[in-house]
Amino acid sequence: MRTLLGYVLALAVVAGIWAGVTFVPFYFDHFEVKDVFNSTFNQFRETGPEHIKERLIDNLDNLPWAKHEELDQFGETQMVKGMGLPEEAITIDFNEQTKVLDMRLEYSRKVSLRPFNKVHILKFVLQRKEKPPNVF
């Protein structure tokens, strides 16, 4: 009985290490996305409502790890720079009367589950709805 408990405990430790190595980097990347999201939100006064979405996409595409899959002219999947966010991934709503900005970002990342040859999709959502700094 004691050896069975030891095996179960060892298996749990190995599974925890595998999960940490597999998933933790994506959550660290999400913290970077959150920083970019918040800094873009705080730059609203300089950017304005008509250009804030483009600024956010540009800032996210410049993250060093940001890569996504696209099909080339031959139908082959290639990894290219940038997050490859669709237009509907970012919603911006600015209320002129209350001066409240509602900014939302939804994106997903593919995680390769090795050695199982499976892919898991992690979904992330960031939303901030408040008056941006220095907007009167």
Description:
- There is one protein chain.
- This protein is α+β, with helices and mostly antiparallel strands and 136 residues long.
- It has one domain (2-130).
- It has three helices and five strands.
- The protein has helices spanning 2-42, 44-47, 52-61; strands spanning 67-71, 77-81, 90-95, 100-113, 118-130.
- Strands 3-4-5 form a three-stranded antiparallel sheet, covered by helices on one side.
- A hairpin with a 5-residue loop joins strand 1 and strand 2.
- Helix 1 (2-42) packs across helix 3.
- It is flat, with a radius of gyration of 20 Å.
- The termini are far apart.
Throw out a few tags for this protein.
136 residues; alpha+beta; 3-stranded antiparallel β-sheet; two-stranded antiparallel ribbon; 3 helices; flat
Please provide a brief summary of the model.
This protein has helices at 2-42, 44-47, 52-61; strands at residues 67-71, 77-81, 90-95, 100-113, 118-130. It has 136 residues and is of the alpha+beta class.
Number of strands: 5
- In the predicted model, the low-confidence regions spanning at least 5 consecutive residues are none
Order of strands, main sheet, comes to 3-4-5
Number of domains: 1
Number of helices: 3
Sequence of secondary-structure elements:
HHHEEEEE
- Protein structure class: alpha+beta
Sheet-strand content, in percent, reads 25-35%
Rg from alpha-carbon coordinates: 20 Å
Task: Kindly state the percentage of residues in helix.
Answer: 40-55%
Shape: flat
The major sheet is characterized as: 3 strands, antiparallel
What's the N-to-C terminus distance? 69 Å
Overall average residue pLDDT: 89
